[in-house]
Amino acid sequence: MKQIAKTLLLSIMTSFFAFALLKFPDQSLEASIRGLNIWWEVVFPSLLPFFITAELLISFGVVKFIGVLFEPIMRPLFNVPGIGSFGWIMGMSSGYPTGAKIAARLREEEQLSQIEAERLVSFTNASSPLFIFGAVSIGFFHDVKLGVLLATCHYIGNALVGICMRFYRIKEDKQQKKSKSGKSSVSIRRAFKEMHQTRIRHDRPLGEVLGDAVLNSIKTLVVVGGFIVLFSVITKLLFIINISPIIASVFEQLLNILSLPGEIALPFLSGLFEITIGAQMLSQITTDSFLATAILVSFILGFNGFSVQAQVASIIGKTDIRFAPYFFSRLLHGIIASLLTVILYKPLYLDKQAFEMDDVAVSQEVSQNFWVTTLDMLKQMGPIITIVFLGLAGLILYKRILKKDVA
User: Fold this and answer.
1) 3-state secondary structure at position 317
2) Is 205 exposed, middle or buried (0-12, 13-18, 19+ CB in 10 A)?
3) Is pTM, for the whole model, over 0.90?
4) How is residue 367 annotated by DSSP?
C-alpha cells in the first residue's frame, strides 16, 4: 500500500510539473536560461579543477598519504579517518558538492566505511569563500563586512556539525576503531608506504588516469548542471502558480513567533529551494533590523538548499551512503550558523561598521576588488572553459569507442 501511494504521489507531482511547463513556457525557458548561465559561467569552471585534482590525488595515493598524517587530528575530532581532512579542506575551498564527490569516491575505493562516509558527507559540503564573499556579500548586499560575519559563522558552524556527527552510530563501528587504534601516531615513513601501495593498486597508464579524471569530473558536473536548471525552473513555477506565497504564509507565522519580520518569509522559502535566488531576494528586502536578514542568509547557506541537496543525493546514490544523515546535518548546520550570527553580529559586523578608519577601508576595498575580479573573470572565461572541456570529454570518449571497436 505504501509503494502504491508513493507511485501515485510521484506520478501526480510529475504530471503537475509537466502541465505547468506547458502552461508557462516563456517563464520556464527564462528560468532554464538563468540556471544554465549560472552553471556554465561559474559552477563548471570553478569546480572542474578541484574535481580533476581530487581524482588524480586519490589515484596517485596522495590522499592516503595525507590521511595517515592527519589521522591523530581527524579521528578524535570527527571520528573519521585522516583522509577525511582532504574532503573537508577541498569542500570548504571549492564549495558544494565537492565534499560529497570526494566522500563517494573514497567510499568506492573502500578507504572509508559506510558510517565514516556518512559522517564525512555531513560536514564537508560547505559554501565556497568565492560564493559567500563574491556573490552574496558583495554581489547582492554590496557589503564586504557581511561576508566576514557569514563566512565565520558558516565555517565554525560546519566544524561544530562535524563534531556533533562524530557520535552518529558510534557503537556500530567500535570494533573497527579498536582494530585501528594501534596506528594513530604520525609517521612519514608509513604515510609514504601507504601512498606507494595505493598507487600500485591503481597502476594504469598516465593518459588513462588523466582521461578518467576528466570524464568522471565532467559527468558529475553535467548532473550538477541539470539539477541547477531543474530547481531554477521549479522555483519559478511555484511562484507563478501561487504555491510559494501560500507556503510562505505558514513560514510567516513561524517567523513572527521567532520575532523575525514576516515579509522575509517568501525570500526565505525561495532560499530553501535555491540559495542564490533566496540570497538575492533577501538582499532586496528592507527591514528594521538587518540582523534578521543576516540570520536567514546564514541558515540557507548552512541548509544548502534543496537544489544542492539533490545534487549530493545523486552523487552518493551510486554508493551505499545514506542521505538521511546528510539532511539532518544540514538542518543542524543552519540552526548553529543562525545562532552564531546572533552571537557574533555585534563584534564582527556592527563594531566594524562603527569603527571605520582609512586603513580598514583600504583593506576592505582590496578584498572586495579581489572577489569581484575573480567572479567577473569566471563569468567572462567560464563559458569558454566549459565548452573546451566538454569538447575534450567528447574527444576522449570518441577515441575510447574507436579503441574498443578495433579491439
Assistant:
1) coil
2) exposed
3) no
4) H
Segment 60-87, tens digit of pLDDT:
888 888 888 888 888 889 988 888 888 8
Helices 265-273/305-316 angle, 10° precision: 20
Percent of the chain as helix, strand, coil, to the nearest 5: 85, 0, 15
Contacts of 45 (CB under 8 A, 6+ apart): 378, 381, 382, 385, 386
Distance (Å, whole) CA 11 – CA 13: 6
The boundaries of the domain holding residue 328 are 24-169+187-406
Question: Would you say residue 282 lies in a domain?
Answer: yes
Please indicate, yes or no, if residue 179 is contained in any of the structural domains. no
- Is 138 inside a domain boundary? yes
pLDDT digits (tens, 9 = 90+) for 231-277: 889 888 888 888 888 888 888 888 888 778 878 888 888 889 888 88
Start-end of H helices in 241-323: 243-257, 265-273, 275-283, 290-303, 305-316
d(CA 223, CA 315): 9
CA–CA distance, 305 with 387 (Å, rounded to integer): 27
User: Where do we find the cell 517563464?
Assistant: 27
Reading phi first (left if > 0) and then psi (alpha if -120 to 50, else beta), residue 110 is in left
For residue 319, the one-letter residue type is: T
State how many domains the chain has. 1
Which of helix, strand or coil describes residue 185? coil
At residue 261, the 3 state secondary structure works out as coil
Q: Transcribe 47-64 into DSSP letters.
A: HHHHHHHHHHHHHTTHHH
